[in-house]
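User: I'm putting together a small comparison set for a docking exercise, and I want a reference complex before I start. The sequence is below, and the ligand is L-homoserine. Could you produce the 3D structure with the ligand included, as structure tokens?
Assistant: Of course. I'll restate your input first, then give the structure tokens for the complex.
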Amino acid sequence: MYSFVDCRKSFAFSSSANLGSGFDILSVAHDAFFDEVEACISSDGVKVSMVGNHETIPEDPLRNSAGFAIVSLMKDYGIKEGITLKIRKGVPAGLGLGSSGASAAAAVASVNSLLSLDLTKDSMVKYSMLGEGAVAGSPHPDNVAASIFGGFVAVLGERTVNLKVNYSDLKFILFIPSVASNDKTKKARELVPKMVETASYVKNMRYGFSLVLGLERGDRDLIRQGLNDEIVEKARLPMFPYYPKLKEIALSGNAIGSCVSGAGPSIIVFTDGETDVNLIESEGRKLMESMGYSVNVKEAKIGGGVRVE
Ligand code: HSE
């Protein structure tokens, strides 16, 4: 049987998924925000309690990414004890920053430790992504994989691998418009085309390889080319009409590149020592405000994996 302690607390970083063409495959954890989830043994079933500022995130475990992940995990492992999850949100929800993924990842890490389940990181991704399905309509593994593994990740079926990154001064600027909505990812996923032209597929393969190899070689031109997408970003463009101009501003300030963060509406800009960060931040903010969006501009670095206290 398990050796129980009463409670365990974990912390998981925010993330930006897709990174151009890597829809549901590529992602990066960043230290912009983090969620904290404490799991405690309780009487029966799974209970979710949102503490602090949490906007409108449901506490019904079947409609909460962390709750649903733990319900699935307990079912598979035949766990009869009850678990209460106390979720303190740091990652703003509905903005493409891996908020539901961070909660699910931290919840699974806490329960794993609490019940001494010895889950591998890949198993943690499996259960956390089921939690994503409860919120986004279909499970997607990219955000949870970044929050669990840390750094840049590629989710390759049932395995996640960390990408090699040889780029010491790589940082990010996040443009975060205040237009969060709970069912945004679900709607954004409905816009993804079911079929694509071969020419778009070829371009996207080129972008994906460029990004992975560019990060490994520290080659900013390859990374810049890699941060593009011919298929998903294009289909979702009406959801973030400021993006093409914002990308122009980023490139005019010599950013490495930029892309939509996950399903948007946030945008992530990759920067290094050659980038005019001040220009990009002020011109980008001006642009978005001129289009009627109030925007939070936040700088971040690559984040680590989920941490159990
Ligand atoms: N890959 C997912 C999507 C990420 O783009 O729908 C959601 O944050």
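The mean pLDDT is 94. The first helix runs from residue 65 to 76.
User: Thanks, that's exactly what I needed.
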